[in-house]
Every structure is written in structure tokens, then in C-alpha cells.
Amino acid sequence: MSRAVTNLQIDSTRLWDSIHETAKFGATPKGGVRRLTLSQEDKQVRDWFRKACEGAGLEVHVDTLGSMFAVRKGRDMSKLPVGLGSHLDTQPTGGKFDGILGTLGALEVIRTLNDAGIETDAPLCIVNWTNEEGSRFAPAMMASAAYVGDFTVDDILSRKDAEGTTVGAALDGIGYRGETKVGTQKFSGFVELHIEQGPILEAENKTIGVVDHGQGVFWYDGKVTGFESHAGSTPMPLRRDALLALSEFALTLEQIAIKLGPNAVATIGEAVIANPSRNVIPGEIAFTIDCRSANADTLDALDASLRAAAGEISKKRRVEIAIDQVWRKPPTHFDPKLVDAVERAAGTLGYAHRRITSGAGHDACNLNTIMPAAMVFVPCKDGISHNELEDATQSDCAAGTNVLLHTVLSLAGVAS
Amino acid sequence: MSRAVTNLQIDSTRLWDSIHETAKFGATPKGGVRRLTLSQEDKQVRDWFRKACEGAGLEVHVDTLGSMFAVRKGRDMSKLPVGLGSHLDTQPTGGKFDGILGTLGALEVIRTLNDAGIETDAPLCIVNWTNEEGSRFAPAMMASAAYVGDFTVDDILSRKDAEGTTVGAALDGIGYRGETKVGTQKFSGFVELHIEQGPILEAENKTIGVVDHGQGVFWYDGKVTGFESHAGSTPMPLRRDALLALSEFALTLEQIAIKLGPNAVATIGEAVIANPSRNVIPGEIAFTIDCRSANADTLDALDASLRAAAGEISKKRRVEIAIDQVWRKPPTHFDPKLVDAVERAAGTLGYAHRRITSGAGHDACNLNTIMPAAMVFVPCKDGISHNELEDATQSDCAAGTNVLLHTVLSLAGVAS
């Protein structure tokens, strides 16, 4: 590799400007972003991204689940492209970096190669995966899951949001139901840059996390069925209060996760009382559970313990607690060769780095089941993510993008 | 009083038919009624009620908060009328009897007097109070509260439902903003027939509850503010989970009420997570608290204990818990002479009866602060109310209406 290629650095200011320019699509008053997948705000950022990719000379195509692929030709078009990218959708009160850094970082890699006049041997292909977040439609990472064959396309197209709109209707609503058959855009491997979404890199003063594992995830839909009755005239001992049963379950689940920790977490993110009224004892509550661990045995122990707790509490409080597992994603072991490539790039560039487990799920975890995949993490402020206060420094974002650049170059190959 | 008057009985079948005829306005699949105040379903039952009252020769007028007054002339029109009635609105998943029995029972009293050709000395006036339930607009019993001067009419008119519709707009929406100035239709006293909404009469095999006390009620709006963060990458010890804090508060509140019992209850009826997502740790939850006791000191102890608990939990879990008291209704001591009149009527009619405290709030509790008021309870099945399964027997409903009839006759006076 020539010295010019070895020393190649991305344009930190251009990357930073892109991140802040797109943050206006769904900007919230507190400085975050609300850009639910396939919403009008998502359409705006997709249109921006398509135009930017075309401006960088890439050929953009869209698959039938709305995932966007932007291809840069290589010297040898018989080779499969190296994939890089992430997602542009956000949580309901999300931040400016989650997913966005990885997608716009990939765009910055291409722009940097264009400016330097560098052609890679294999082609490159940026991806913006549809619905990574999973907050409008379940499951999260649905497009990459369908890509690797975990779900059929028809199944995903029929999933509904809280208003009853299907994925198919939402795709048509913003004009992003593309023509590429899901799974047909192949890659030799996939590299995803992302903020850590946790506190470790910042605490240890590391610039780069070389992600070698991803946590497995179990998702559940739950429902407590007690009995609605009058808040004034029903004595405390006669109540079958669904909220109190859920409260006891939530605190027990917290203890279970702490006991199985430090490598285990459990969260009740949604809880909705049916027909709530301030003078009626709650009779029914629907809720969700999210359990994660990088260790498969720990996940199974979480599953068994939470089911046992539900059984005990339902008996004690004379309510029903239904627990339905709706998603089961095993832990990820990223491709050792690609992980090494990321680590080498970080080392060559001189960034302080460490191996790390991803607490969050990512599209790269899905892709790793059918191709070599790896991830690059950069620190985020106070470990905060899925929050409008999510923040990262320009310098760390640039460092991560440089690692992405050099990892991709090592995979795609550059004529010396 | 003549023998004909002494033996007078209402028409049990006609009463039962009225109850079931009006139950179609807002009927739910499970056999209950959803008739939120000032909704289209409420307009339907109001129109039916107005027509029925006019059919019984009553003169109907409506006050500026929508409460309906149906006056039957007395022999001596210089006397204030005796008031009787209740409300026709229901909880979101309410039953066929709560409020309805007292209003249609009052109509049945008038119809019975008409059939028997009995004229009372004082006039009689049936009332259908607006928004007794409080589930669409807070507070509950708002119209009778404004009637007795606890709130200004403008204040009540500006109260909003969850969609932001004001009471004033809702009144106009169904054409029930009347012209009578609130508080100007005076009464010498008020008697309200109601289902018990609790388990005591049924358990003790009594037909009539002679209500001598009503529980005081404290209502609060609460908010837990923790911190939204990623459900996968935030270790358990670093979380500031608003739902876990509320769970701990809810279970502590239950223990407080049990400890201060048996004459104390506390309920969290509403709890809404802001921006819920299954993979985001809840950062903010709005909730309500309803505390009741017939003893003022117990209510004060509940108040002090729940505030202390909120303080401790917020400190321990590094969240804020705001507790705002939005309504404070002292316990009711019903007028001893009217309570005696109810007891005498029950005794004369030969019904098994006992003195009882009302667990629920009622318009009669508000009225008792400025005039003599009393209540008649009848049993309801399994003590269940504010539920679609709410039920009462035809025979008990008739017995309660007979007690209402004879109490009203004793207050209004009948020429012997």
C-alpha cells in the first residue's frame, strides 16, 4: 500500500457537518432526533442520503423492505463488495449519533476515497438498513434479519405499528418500497461503525472499541390480568391490582438481572394500563420485557427465573401473568479475522483501543450469521444513548471513521 | 299519612326496564356501559332522560355545567323542593347501575306518585349531575362541587380531557350548556340512592345500607423523572429507571394503606410512561394517586407517609418523584336527621338494614356541605363496581327505590 493510502484520513469537519445537517430531520426541542422508521422524517433523511450518495458517484438501489444500497465500483467487479453502514432511523426520543454515525461515516469514507482518487479492488457498498430501532415496528433490525433469512419478507411487510399501519403500507407511504429482492445484494463482509451506547470506553479513556461479541436478546410481550374495581370501596386485602402485580414483577426482575450480572440486563420498557382511570383499580396491563447477555446460559437462566417469578407473583396476588417470548436472538461472536482487521487498523492509526462486547443489538450481529462481520465503537458521553442527550466528540467520530476507512481498505484491497 | 301512602310501592318491573333500556347507550360487548361524561353516548341518555321526565309531567331545566333538574310541583310552592337523583355518566368500562339506579330510581319515585295521584307539600326535583365519575375530566363530582361553591364555574368550564377538549366545548358539542346559573336551583335537602360498590351489605345479607359517613378523598398527580437510556448497554447499577421507582412507590403505598387500615385505601389508577419503547429504560412516568378514609387523621397520616416514601425512594434510586395534591375532600358526616329518616323508612318497609360508610365519593357528599343530605345503599354482586361486570338484583334495586320514595315523602310531606 502506498504511503498516501496508509496515511489517508477522513475529513472530520465534513463528517461533523453531515451529522448535524441530517439532525434537522426530526429535530426535537431538547437537541435530539425523533425519526421513527418509515415516517415523513425518515423519508426526508433518506432523500438527503440518496442525493448525497449519488453526488459521490454511487449507484443507489433499494430493496423491497426499504433498505438502501449505494455501490461504488471496484477495479474487479467479479469480487463481492465490502459492505459498510448502519441505519438512519431513531428512537422516539433518540440522539444524533446512534446509527447515523455509521451511515454517514460510511459516506465520508467514500468521499475521502473519491478526493484521494483511490480505487479499491473490490467494490464498496454503503447500506442504510430499514428499522434498526424497532420502536415503531417489532422486531428491531427487521430488515437485516429478513436479509439473512430469519424472517420472510411477507412476514415483515405485514408487521403493524401501534396505529395498525403495516410495514408495507408505511413503505408505500414514503415511496421507499424498492425493487431489489431482499438478500440479493451480496457482500464479502460487513463493517459497522457505531457509538458504544455504554460507559466503558469513556471510563477507560479509550478512543476505539474493537467489538468482538454482541449480547443475545430475548424479547417478551406480557400481560397482567387482575380485576378492575372501585378505588374507594374495595378494601386493600380484596384487591387484584394489576399494577401492583406488575410492580412486584418489575422489582423481582431487577433483582434477577443483578444476581445474574454483571453480564446481564433486563428492562420493562413499555407498560400500558387498559382503560385507566384514577379511581379504578387497574385490571389489566400489557407490558414488554427486554433481556440481554453475551452469555447464552445466562440468557436461559434469565428466562427461567422471570417465568418462575411471574408464576409466584400471579399466585400470591390472584392475577394472571402471561409471558410470551416474541424474539430470541443468540449472542454474537463476530468474525475473528474481521475483528483482527479492525484491531490492526486502530493500532496502525495509533488510537487507544480495547476489545469490547456490544450491549445493544446491531444489524452487523444479524449479518454475522451469514458473512464475516465486525464493528467499530467510539465513546459516547456518559454512556448515554436512546436519549436526546446522546453525544459524542467530533474527534472520536473522526477516529472511528478512520478505523472504518482503513478496515474497509484492508478488506477491499488497494493496488499498491 | 293515609294507609295508601304508607303502603305505596314503586313498580319494580318499570324501574328494571328503564335501567336496561338506558344501558344500550354506550353498551359494551361484555355487558357494561361506556358513557363518558358529555360524550355522544351521554347525550343519548340525557335526551332519553329529558323526554322521560317531560313525559312524567316534570319541568326540565339545565344549568351552565349541564346538570339537569326536573321539577315536580308541590302543593306549597313557597317551599324549597326536596332533591333526589344521582348521575348517568359512567367509567370507561363501567356498569349499568353506578349512578343510573339513583337517577332512574328518582324517576320511578315520581312515576309512582303520579300513578297514585299523590301530591307532596314541597315540590320534588330530580337531578342528573354532570361528570360524577371524573374519568374524562378531573375532578370527579365537578358539577355538584361547583354547585356548592368548591370551584368556580369558569374553572370547571376550562378543565380539559386527555385530548385537550374543554368542559365548555364538550357541553356545546352535545348541546347541554344550559341557561340556569349554577347553584340557583335550591333544595331543602338531597337524597341519593346508589349501589354500595363494596362487599359489606352482600356479605351481611342486608338489603339497605343507611349511609351515615362518606370517605374523605385526596387525589394527587405524580411524576417520576429518571433517565432514559439504552436497555442493552446500560448496566443495572447505573440505571435511573422511572418504572422501577414507581413500582417501589406503588408497593410501599400499598403497605402504608394496609398499615393504616382497615379504614384506609390507596390506589395508583393511572401510570403512563413518556415515549415508551421496549428497548429504552423508562425515563419519565406520570401517575395518579387516590387515597381515602372516613377518618380525617388517617387521611393526613396517609398523606405524610406517602410523601416520606416518595422522598426515600427518589433518593435511593436517583430519580425525582413529584407529588402534587390536586383534590382534597374531607370525610362526610351526613345530616343526622336525614340519616334517621332513611333508617326509619327502611325499618317501616321491613328491610334488613345497617349503618354504613360510603367508600366512594358521591354528589350527595358535596351537597351535604351546604344542605342536609343522605344516601341509601343497596348491595351489588361481589362488591364489584367500576367494572362491566357490576350487577345488582331487581329486588334490591326496588327495595332501595322504595326507601328513597318514603324518605322523600317524609321530607316533602303529604297531606293526610
TrEMBL record, chains A, B:
Q: InterPro entries per the record? A: Amidase_Cbmase, Bact_exopeptidase_dim_dom, Peptidase_M20, Peptidase_M20_dimer
Which positions bind Zn(2+) 1? H87, D98, H194
This entry's comment on the bound cofactor is: Binds 2 Zn(2+) ions per subunit.
State its cofactor.
Answer: Zn(2+)
Q: Which SUPFAM superfamilies match?
A: Bacterial exopeptidase dimerisation domain, Zn-dependent exopeptidases
A molecular function (GO) term:
hydrolase activity, acting on carbon-nitrogen (but not peptide) bonds, in linear amidines
* Entry annotated with the keyword Hydrolase: yes
Tell me which residues bind Zn(2+) 2: D98, E133, H386
> Residue limits of the Peptidase M20 dimerisation domain?
216-316
- Which UniProt keywords are present, listed alphabetically? Hydrolase, Metal-binding, Zinc
State the CDD domains in the record: M20_bAS
- Keyword Methyltransferase listed? The answer is no
The family this protein is said to belong to: Belongs to the peptidase M20 family.
What is the protein's given name?
N-carbamoyl-beta-alanine amidohydrolase
| Record organism | Bradyrhizobium oligotrophicum S58
